[in-house]
Amino acid sequence: MAQTQTKTYSITEMARICGVSVSSMRTQLIKRGFKPAETGENNSKLYSDKALKTMRDYYRSKLKNSSNRQPQTTRSELIESKNAQIEQLQKEVELLKSQLDVKDEQIKSMTEVAQANAQLTAQAHTLDASHRLEDSTTKDTKSPQDTHGRFWHWFHD
Asked: What pTM was estimated for this model as a whole?
């Protein structure tokens, strides 16, 4: 009797055919109890055509089941959803603009207060300097007698 040789596949080839990751394919092969049909070059595990068919069927059914669970969104629903998001974002922008206007007014009033404070401080320094100048000129114009204290004047006047 002639033996028919079936084609064998590596885990990488099987993953590529089924459209999944190599680690996912390896995990499912182990879970399902598949043993390698043979060992290839560099001790790579090669699985039979039957294993490939089983895994392909598994991933196809999994894909169908997952697509049944999630309803397809129609174009009009998607547009409606996006329009609602746009409207919400426009409201948020308006709110932020109004908050910015309030903050601008606060900054303007605080700037006016700071300018008034600077003017008052400058006036205070000017008055202080003028009083110092008056004090220094009045000291210089006093007579030598005025430099003596009150007790001296009681006894010498």
From this structure: 0.40
